[in-house]
Structures
1.
Amino acid sequence: MPKVKGKSKTTRLLARFSTIAGELGYPDTVRDAKGAAFKFYTEEGNLDWVFLNPEVFNLRDPAKFASLVHAKKRDPATNLLDANMLWDFLSSHPETFNALMRNYTDEGTPKSYSRLVISSVNTYTFTKRKSPTEWDHHLVRIKLVPATPIDPDKDWFTYDEATTMAGKDPDYLTRRLYDEIQRGQFPTWKVSAQILDPAKTSVDVLDATKVVPASDCPWIEFGQLKLNELPQNYFTQVEQAAFTPANIVPGWDISPDPILQIRLLSYGDSQRYRLGANHDQLPPNRACSYVYDPTRRNGAHSLTNYANAPNYIGSSGRDLKKPDHYNISFLKWQGNISRYLSKVEDVDYKQCREHWDTLSGPQQSRFISNVASSVAPASLPVRIATIAVFTKIWQAKGHETPPGPSPEKLTEDLKDRINERLENNKSKGSRLGIVPGGEGSDDLSYIPPTFPDPSTRPVPDIYERV
Ligand code: HEM
């Protein structure tokens, strides 16, 4: 089994794709960020890449994570997904909008997991020995780009297509990934690294809500990732898999990125609950290399218990070589340690605006429709707060803002489309026997999350549009 790093090396890996808000069995074409987790079985242990599409995360303050997840999940009273909860949280935390700017384009409804740009989002560290006593360290982000370039018109569903597909085949993305591999159309990505030099960019390289522009720190391609094998038993090989950013190997290290720091603890915590104390000994999780960690033993279903070895590391008489990267400190800090990472500043809106400027006219129009459909069922104050964040984004100055509709015009457009949906849902709601929450349009309490966009019609034969 070769090391993961080095020229012309091939390393076997396990991949798992996921949606975030919906439970198992929930339609996978409903708009959502997508998770992509990879476990590389290297000769130095397992390296996990637990990555995401889009390329930025919603938060930089990990303390908010539980609330973000809960706002996306079901309402505790109704057990329904709830636009009010979602947009209440999002609009009161505008740092979430840079991710949202991507997720509410058609990028949020891809036609295949194989057509995703997948990013590390968090910042990690490349380490390499320079001399017996010196090391090179580089802060780094990773990106996987499909080997065949993405064509948004072919590779992304529109909202109505995704909605129709959600009913026709709730497992569409999973089925398609399986089919592609079975037919030998192996999903393949080019893997690139962005070496982050804080001196070369004004963006905080440890802020997961921000893109570091390629013009500041270019991307360097260094490998390829291909999925060419299917599991034989879903439960054993996929369901029981446990990925965590804490699984690292020499050459790859963590960084002080606050979101990453919390992730180092929370995945293992969840997995000890989900799979049990010794989940790292299950077939998909155990390393193919020799592992010696006698501090971790006993507990339910322990299969490898180190016989009579002492239960600590560093016992006399055992010539254990310390790993090369042991205890090397490389970051020099200057500045303050701060408690609150939540303050939203102009730069938060600026990156949103910059992304908006990269969208074509039709993509911008569909973005506004997608947001309107999602936010329409929320209460009036939440709708007002959401519109206000978008106005700030449209008012922000990007790099080179191209000519286009004014912020006022865009804001009016969003308001109009929200109102259009409210009217539509009011009439459809009574026809479907759905009980509105009150008399006024502002009080409508429920619109199915996959309700077709009123400005379009469901696609008659969705498979022809795929
Ligand atoms: C404060 C921030 C975050 C926390 C606390 C957190 C926590 C978790 C937890 C507990 C799980 C379930 C693990 C399991 O049961 O196996 C999970 C799954 C996942 N997370 Fe996060 N997460 C955070 C941010 C992120 C970010 C920034 C990314 C990507 C860059 C990410 C990618 C994923 C993926 C891909 C999965 C599914 C992995 C799989 O297939 O097992 N998460 N997360």
2.
Amino acid sequence: MKKTLKSKRPKKTQGPTVESIRREKAKARELRQTRWWQNQLSAGVCHYCGKTFSAQELTLDHIVPVARGGKSTRGNVVPACKPCNSEKKYYTPAELILRDKMNSNIQF
Ligand SMILES: [Zn+2]
């Protein structure tokens, strides 16, 4: 009798798949077209530093990055100025607090 190897199911991995990242990025593009987002931009306040910017200077930022499983929903999307956005990179809010506390960059 021939023994067949049972194909093991791949373990559920943490974090988003390429497909879900693509989906959330598409949703972010749609969100940019909404009146709600236009209102965020015209308010012009960066979520992180609290300074006021023109709409052109603000970018759409995911509080929890898409690459870390964040969703393109109103609760997870905020206007951020370019310096804050590039400073934040892919960190989650908890990691940013941790980084500030350690007063240095942390590697993951
Ligand atoms: Zn800012």
